[in-house]
Design goal:
single chain; 434 Repressor (Amino-terminal Domain); Endonuclease, Chain A; 12 helices
Length: 276
Amino acid sequence: MLNRKDLDPDKSPAAAFGQHLRMLRDGRGWTQDELGERIGCSGTHISAVETGRRPPTRRFAASADRVFGTGDKLERQSQALKYTALLEGFPEYVTHEARAAEIRLYEVGVIPGVLQTPEYASVLNTRAVERGAIAAEQAEERVSLVEERQVALARTPPPLVFVVLDESCLRRPVGSSAVMKDQLAKLVEFAALPNTTLQVAPFVIGDRRPLSLPLYVLTMPNRSLVSYAESAQRGRLERESASVVPLLTAYHQLQAEALSQAESVAMIKQLRKGTP
């Protein structure tokens, strides 16, 4: 086809949405004008969405779901585009996390968002604003997302949630001693839930540690796998189960090296009392 622009779904969440929309359209054999007629917009608008030049509105995505019979998949994917203060791939990861049957998290340096108290999350983002890393509006966006993710975890039936925290997550002071005490108490409460497992990867693991960067692995209701990994400035979402399996294996190896949940909770309680 003449002037058909190649799409790179890894470029941005908008590009990933556009590539997905084009794939669905091509599967039906429709032109952009034909799809536009069904959705209620112009073919030019469809082109702009497919190439990432115009982000899809929630209404547009819901209409596309109706036309293609994709449930609410496109609508959920479009909602990932509203977060501007997050690393690439993470907004889409959050939409998958809200539906996952099993969630596995490994975090280094900070408590993961799904376990943060509002005060802990607020302090982290206030400091980011002070450093000039994000704007005040983006800090509010991040705190709001923490709340949304925690609400999603309380759904019925709840997902199984496995968390491994590097010891640095517990020992890094964030905010006042009261903020840290409340945060550590929340971890103990989380570990007591029937659908959760909490472990600490202590410093003494040393070079036996199979992972050195944060990693999130999801098992979806259909048993497919999704992973999200990030460095300081870049995040990567992996949607192909075959590529996630080695990461899942490394996660299981990390769990084997980590403290048991009972030992982990004992460490957290000690730190909350102010003893090393």
